[in-house]
Amino acid sequence: MIGKKMEKALNEQVNAEMFSAYLYLSMEAYFKSLNLNGFANWMRVQTQEEMFHAMKMYDYINERGGRILLKAIEGPETEWKSPLEVMQAVCKHEQKVTSLINNLVDLAIEERDHAANSFLQWFVNEQVEEEASADEIVKQLQLMENAPGGLYLMDKELGQRVFTPPAATA
After folding, report:
1. How many CA within 13 A on the CB side of residue 113?
2. Are 46 and 134 in contact (CB under 8 A)?
3. What's the rounded mean pLDDT across residues 107-133?
4. Rounded-to-integer distance, Cα 153 and Cα 1, Å
5. Sequence-separated (6 or more) residues with CB below 8 Å from residue 40
6. Which of 97, 96, 87 is nearest to 14 (CA)?
7. Reported confidence tier of residue 167, pLDDT bands at 50, 70, 90
8. What's the rounded Cα separation, in Å, for the pair 122 and 4?
9. What integer best gives the mean pLDDT of the chain?
10. How many CB atoms lie within 10 A of CB 10?
11. What is the largest CA-CA distance in the chain?
12. How many other β-carbons are positioned within 10 Å of the β-carbon of residue 71?
């Protein structure tokens, strides 16, 4: 059985993950408007990952006998000055999500909820990956500043990304 504090915190995280998906969908629309379809594809995959994360938490709450309480999702930003600014926003957002996940782990430890702590370790590891991926793109964009050919090549590369749901864990 899940405790009320953990149930409430995980419900809030479901909302945060759905907001992340909504934000990345908005970023996809921005990139589509610039005809940067590879960047748009990267954001589409990001959106799918965030929805996967939300549903993973949603399912966990249900499995532990909790109740899902969905709330309104805040509207995301819709305008940025450049692809670099978008990717810097992704980095900042992923750092925020990491802090939210870390707070959930802290709560699980405080509540002595070993099942939640174990469950959340997947997200801890996932956030390391999320931050590194976004940071790599930011650094590459910074290297190619004022080089449209580089942006073109990066757009082609990002267009190759596909969403692959993680394999079920035992």
Report:
1. 23
2. no
3. 97
4. 51
5. 28, 29, 31, 32
6. 97
7. confident
8. 22
9. 95
10. 24
11. 56
12. 10
Asked whether the beta carbons of 61 and 68 are under 8 A apart, the reply is: yes
**What would the 3-class secondary structure string for the chain be?**
CCCHHHHHHHHHHHHHHHHHHHHHHHHHHHHHHCCCHHHHHHHHHHHHHHHHHHHHHHHHHHHCCCCCCCCCCCCCCCCCCCHHHHHHHHHHHHHHHHHHHHHHHHHHHHCCCHHHHHHHHHHHHHHHHHHHHHHHHHHHHHHCCCCHHHHHHHHHHHCCCCCCCCCCCC
User: Residue written as tokens 């995980």?
Assistant: 10
Q: Position 45: which residue type? A: V
Tokens coding 50:
């965030």
